[in-house]
């Protein structure tokens, strides 16, 4: 029986601990915070979208540039496996209308309780308030309530999370400890995040918090139907997150990016032009927008905000703008507010077992690896799949198995 440290008690680390203890190893989980899995519990506040019912090929494609490296791990633990695993913990799940999978209770805490119970029965020891602070020769250094401790293990799994919502524990403080040992880390960037826009004071004071419903938004990520929210800084919400990587990358490359909105997806531009032309010329702009295009107050204000001369435009020109309204964004919101992060330990730094080539016996998993995915349950699924893969990698490595 080997002594294995899992550092980080999020979904990736807990899954690694489960697989390692299943295989009969002695597992200690070290967590810096006073309790484990705070981000997982936070995800539960919006229902805990645990995975997605996409067909498997589509599911893998959500992992974008990292899909090829992630494929074997996602093949070994598919979305259907995530669901079956959740149900084996006694938590019933359902598939929502969008294909997203949730626990029926729409909460994370019963699942986490059942999971920690299983780990406890399998002999996993959890040490909270134990912050890893790097290496001292071959030992791991922890700051604990009993002071600084140097501990050694037969293998180590790092599951330290990404860089979003640092107050929940994943603060990326580990980056210099790994780069100092020759591990390449791609700088973290916000993913699934809101964006800043140049709203006028009048617009943001009146409409911050207002939802913009039933639109289709287009960027390099494609045309996606949904809704978003006006914020004081710009735009937020699921539809924006779906475009976040494309907008962020366009800002990086071109210094400019825009989301193109179709505010009336159910009508063709010609039909809309006819409907607008029917409105009395003397009617107010908001009445023409409401009666001719079915736009509510926030959509009408958005048109005026982005096309100041809209009231003076001919119906056909106005219709074209309403069907393809460019909403420029100036910057992503800070990473601390993002749902997840892109960047992390580079794929060149790990072998197919997720072992750091610069640090034999040290494996990495979860959001600290360089992959990103949209919201929709892909993030937790990716963390669980890589957590399993890192654990299996450690089991093989301890057994002296050399991959071809
Ligand atoms: C508001 C919100 C809602 C979300 N909703 C969803 C959702 O519905 N579906 C979905 O798929 N994803 C969702 N996510 C994303 C998902 O929660 C994360 O991708 C996932 O938790 C990452 O798992 P992880 O185990 O890699 O890292 P984390 O969950 O971040 O866990 C890492 C752990 O390591 C600990 N740690 C860090 N550094 C140290 C150290 N030096 N020493 C010891 N411990 C350390 C941290 O305290 C933390 O507990 C959401 C995220 C947020 C912020």
Percent in strands: 15-25%
> What is the average of the pLDDT values?
97
**What percent of the residues sit in helical stretches (DSSP H or I)?**
25-40%
Label the structural class.
Answer: alpha+beta
**Uncertain parts:** none
3D structure, described in words:
By secondary structure, this protein is an alpha+beta fold. Strand 14 (222-230) and strand 15 (234-236) form a beta hairpin. It has 14 helices and 20 strands. The two termini are 25 Å apart. 36% of the residues lie in helices and 24% in strands. It has two domains: 3-191 and 340-398, FAD/NAD(P)-binding domain (3-Layer(bba) Sandwich), CATH 3.50.50; 195-332, no CATH class. Helix 1 (11-22) runs parallel beside helix 14 (378-398) and helix 4 packs across helix 14. The strands form five sheets. It has a seven-stranded antiparallel beta sheet with strand order 17-16-13-14-15-12-18. A five-stranded parallel beta sheet has the order 6-2-1-10-20, covered by helices on one side. The protein binds flavin-adenine dinucleotide. Flavin-adenine dinucleotide is lined by residues 7-13, 30-33, 36, 38-40, 42-43, 46, 48-49, 131-132, 159-161, 164-165, 169-170, 173-174, 339-340, 366-367, 377, 379-380, 383. Flavin-adenine dinucleotide (FAD) is lined by residues 7-13, 30-33, 36, 38-40, 42-43, 46, 48-49, 131-132, 159-161, 164-165, 169-170, 173-174, 339-340, 366-367, 377, 379-380, 383.
């Amino acid at each position: 029986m080997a002594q294995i440290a899992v550092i980080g008690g999020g979904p990736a680390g807990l899954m690694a601990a489960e697989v390692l203890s299943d295989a009969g190893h002695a597992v200690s989980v070290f967590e810096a915070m006073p309790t484990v899995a705070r981000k997982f519990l936070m995800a539960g506040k919006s229902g805990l979208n645990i995975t997605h019912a996409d067909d498997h090929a589509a599911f893998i494609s959500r992992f974008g540039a990292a899909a090829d490296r992630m494929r074997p791990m996602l093949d070994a633990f598919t979305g259907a496996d995530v669901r079956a695993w959740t149900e084996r913990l006694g938590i019933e799940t359902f598939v929502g209308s969008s294909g997203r999978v949730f626990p029926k209770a729409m909460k994370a805490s019963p699942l986490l309780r059942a999971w920690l119970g299983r780990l406890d029965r399998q002999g996993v020891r959890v040490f909270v308030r134990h912050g890893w602070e790097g290496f001292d020769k071959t030992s791991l250094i922890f700051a604990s309530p009993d002071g600084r401790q140097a501990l050694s293990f037969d293998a180590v799994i790092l599951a330290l999370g990404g860089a979003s919502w640092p107050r929940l524990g994943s603060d990326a403080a580990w980056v210099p400890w790994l780069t100092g040992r020759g591990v390449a880390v791609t700088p973290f960037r916000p993913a699934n995040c809101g964006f800043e826009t140049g709203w006028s004071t009048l617009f943001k004071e009146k409409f911050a918090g207002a939802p913009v419903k039933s639109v289709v938004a287009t960027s390099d990520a494609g045309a996606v139907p949904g809704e978003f929210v006006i914020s004081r800084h710009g735009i937020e919400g699921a539809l924006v997150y779906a475009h976040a990587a494309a907008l962020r990358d366009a800002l990086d490359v071109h210094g400019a990016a825009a989301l193109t909105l179709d505010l009336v997806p159910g009508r063709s531009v010609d039909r809309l032009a006819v409907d607008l032309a029917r409105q009395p010329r003397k009617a107010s702009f908001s009445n023409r927008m409401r009666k001719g295009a079915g736009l509510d107050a926030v959509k009408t204000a958005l048109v005026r905000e982005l096309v100041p001369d809209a009231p003076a435009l001919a119906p056909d020109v106005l219709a074209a703008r309403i069907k393809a309204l460019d909403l420029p964004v100036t910057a992503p919101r800070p990473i601390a507010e993002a749902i997840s992060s892109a960047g992390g330990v580079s794929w060149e730094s790990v072998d197919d077992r997720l072992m750091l080539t610069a640090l034999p016996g040290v494996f990495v998993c979860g959001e600290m690896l360089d992959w990103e995915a949209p919201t929709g349950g892909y993030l937790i699924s990716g963390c669980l799949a890589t957590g399993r893969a890192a654990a299996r990698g450690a089991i093989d490595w301890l057994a002296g198995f050399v991959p071809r």
